[in-house]
Amino acid sequence: MRVLFTGINHRTASVTLRECFAVGGDASSHMDAFRERFPGCECVIVSTCNRFELYVARPLHGKPNADDLRTFLSGRFGVPMDQVASASIHREQDQAVAHLFRVCCGLDSMVLGEPQVLGQVKRAYQAAGDCGAAGPVLHRVFQQAIATAKQARTETGIDAGRVSVGSVAADLAHQVFADFADKTVLGIGAGEIAKLTLRHMMELKPHRLWLANRTHRNASELAEAIHLPASVGGARPWEQLDELLIEADIVVTCTAAPEPILTPKRFKPILKRRRFRPLFVIDLAMPRDADPAIGSMTNLYLYNIDDLQSVVADSLGQRGDQAQDCERHVAAAVTACMSQITHADLGQLIRKLRAKLHDIGQEEGERTLKKLAQHQDSPDAEALGAVLDEHTQRLVNKILHMPLSQLNQHHGDAPLGFYAAALRRLFDLEDDTEAKTEPTKLPEQAPGPDPDAETNSAESVQDKPAATRP
Amino acid sequence: MNLANPITTLILLAMTVLSVYATFGALRRLSPSGHPGRPVLASVMQRVIVAVIMLTTLGMFARFWLRDGGWQPVTSHRDGLLLMSFMLAGAVLFIQSRARLVGLSSFALPVLTFILGWAICASAWTYHPFDLPTLHPVWRGVHLTGVYLGTGFCGVAAMAGGMYLYVQARLKRKQNLGGLGRLASLEALENTIIRSATLGFVLLTLGLVSGVVVISDGDTPLPAGWWFAPKIVLATLAWGIYAVLMNVRYASGFRGRRAAWLSIIGIVLLLATYVVVTSLPPAPPVSPTASVSNGSGHTNTTNLVLPAKSSASKASVLDPVEGD
C-alpha cells in the first residue's frame, strides 16, 4: 500500500480559503464520497481551524494520484482547481507519514507544540474508524503518530509552559479594559477552544458571563464544564443574542455556523444602543462567525484565530532545542512506521504467494494421483518414478513460469540486475555459477518456461539471470 | 545686571539634555522590539525625572535669592513653562507609580522635553516679564494658577490621548501585539483623558474668568469686540473642547478615538494661545490714544483695546511688556 497526503494549512492558504474547506464536526460524508469514488482505498480527513488534510492509503499501483486528490477536493468543496493546486501540498510515503507525525507533535502548528491539534487528530481518526474509512494501513499510521506525539511531548517538553490562545485572548482583553469587575463576557457556541478561552476569561473575574447557543442544552453543559457559578451567569436563550451583545464587553464566539452570525448589518444598531462602549470580539470559529468588516467599526476590536495564534507564536519564539529533539523523535518513529507498513505488505504478499503455491501443488498433486491410479494394478517402480519426475518437473515449471516470464519482459521500473540480485539472494544461489557460466544475452521477448512442457530444464532458466550480470 | 536669565537658561539646558536622554530611552522602550523589562533604563528615566524636578526647584530658589527676596513664582512666560515642566515631571512620577498607567511616562517625556526646549527659547531669546505690579494680586494669582495648572492637566490628557491612539492603532493593525502588555489599557487611558480634562476644564474656567475680570478691572465695561482677540477665541475653543471631553461618557459619539483626538486638539489650541500671546503683535487700538506709556518709560503695545487712562492696569497677565 502507498500512503498519500494532500491538504492545505495556515501556511499555504488564507483564512478565507480555509473556510471553504471547513467541514465542521462531521467529515464522514466526505470520506464516504471518497471511498465511493476510489474503492479499495483508505482515507482519514483531519479538519481543524488551521488545516484541512486528506490522508489516503491506496494499492501500490493504482488510483488516486496527486491530481486525482486535488480534483476530488476541488469538486467536493466547490473551490476552483487552480486555487486548490496553488494552495495545497502533496506528500507521499514516508514524507506523508512524517507530515502527520509532525502535525501531531505540534511541529507544524502556528503555535509550536500546541496540544489541541493532537486531540483534533484523534477525533478525526476516530471518525474515520467509525465510518470504516480507515483501514489497516491508516490505523497503523495514525496510532503510531498519536503514540509518538505523546512520547515526544513528554520527553522533549515542547508543550511545557505553553502560552495558549485563551491566555493571549485574556491578555488582549487586558489591553482594552482596565477593570473587569463591571464587565460582561458573552460566549457564543460551545466549541472546545471556546471552552478553554472562557476558562481564561473566568480568571479575569468578570461581573457577568453569559453563554448562548442555538441548542440551549449545549450552553448549559458548557456552563457546567467550566464550573460557572450561577451567581456570575449561565446559559441564555439564543433569541436574546442581540440583547446580550448590547450588554457584553467581551464576546468569545465559536459556533459551527456556515455563515457569519456577527455582521455589520446586525452590529450597526447594536453599537448605537451600546453607546459606543468598547467591544472586544474573539472569533475562534472556522468558518468565521464574525464578518471581518465589523473589525473596522468604532471601538470594536475583532480578533480571529490566526491573529491570536500569531501572537502566541511570537511570544513563544521558535523553541529551537525542543523542536529539534522532537524532530529527531519524529524521524525515528517515521522510519519504524514505514518499516512496519512495508513488512505488513510483505507478510500479506508472502501469504498470497504461499496460497498460490499451495493451489499449484494441489492441482499438480491431483493430476499426479490420477496418473498413479492408472498404475495401481501393475505397480512398476520405473513407471512410478517417471510419474513422480513428471510431477516434480511440472510443479517447478509452474512455479517458475510467472516470475521468469516477467523477468524476460524488460520492465522500466527496475533494472534486471536488481531482479538477478534478488533471485540470487532469495534462493541463496552461489556466485560460483557466475564464474562457470559464460554471460549470454537474454533473447528479446523470450518466452518463459512452458509449465506443461515435459522436459523444460530448470537449470537453463536458472542460468538466465546470471547473463544480466556485468 | 540681571543674572537670572543666564543662570535659568543654563539650568533649563541641563534639564533639557537629561530629558532628551530620558526621551530616547522612553521611545526605545515603546518600540515593538524593545525588551519589556529594561530595569536599568526604567531606573535611569526615574532618576532623570527626579533630577529635572530638583533642578527646577533649584532654579526657582536661585531666582529668589538673586532678586533679594522679591521673588514671585511666575513673573514671565518662561516661569510659566518652568512651572509646567515641574508639574509634568511630578505627573510622570505619579504615572510611574500607577500600575494601570504603565507606559504613559514614555509619552510624557517627549512633551516635557518640548516644554523645556520652549522654556529655553522663552528665557534666552524672547524673555518678556509680565506687567504684574499693575494687576490685582488675587485675580492675578487665580488667573496664573488656573491657566498654567489647567494647561498642565490638559497636557496630561493630551499625552493619554496620544498613547490611546498609539495603543489603539496597534490593536487594530494587529501587528507586534506581543509587546503591548507593557502599555496601559485603552479604558485606563480614556479614564485618564476624562479625569485630566475635567480638572483642566475647571482650572481653565477659573483662569479664563479671572482673565476677563483682570481685563475689565471690575468697574470698567469691556471694550467692544474684546472677544475677537485671537487668544480669547483660541482659549474659548479649547475650553469648549474640554467641556465636551469631560462629558464624553454621556456624549457617547465622542468616545474612544475621537476623545483622544479632541484631547490633542485641545492642547494644540492652548499652545497656540500661548504662541499668540507671546509672538503675535497686539491688536490695533480703536482709539488713537490707546498706545500709551505704562509709566515706566516703556510703551505698552500688547494690551487689548482699552481706554488710555487704565490700559496698563487692564492688561492680561499673559500680555508681556518689553523689558524687565
Explain this structure to me?
By secondary structure, chain A is an alpha/beta fold. Chain A folds into three domains: 157 residues, 2-Layer Sandwich (Beta Polymerase, domain 2); 152 residues, Rossmann fold; 71 residues, no CATH class. Chain A contains 18 helices and ten strands. In chain A, the strands form two sheets. Chain A has a six-stranded parallel β-sheet with strand order 7-6-5-8-9-10, with helices on both faces. In chain A, β6, α10 and β7 form a beta-alpha-beta unit. In chain A, α5 packs across α7 and α11 crosses α12. Chain A is elongated. Chain A starts with a strand and ends with a helix. The relative contact order of chain A is 0.09. The C terminus of chain A is likely disordered. By secondary structure, chain B is mostly helical. Chain B has two domains: 127 residues; 194 residues. Chain B is built from eight helices and no strands. In chain B, α2 packs antiparallel against α3, α3 runs antiparallel to α4 and α5 packs across α8. The longest helix of chain B is centred in the middle third of the chain and has 37 residues. Chain B starts with a helix and ends in a 45-residue tail after the last helix. In chain B, 48% of the residues are buried. Chains A and B meet through α8 and α13 of A and α5 and α6 of B.
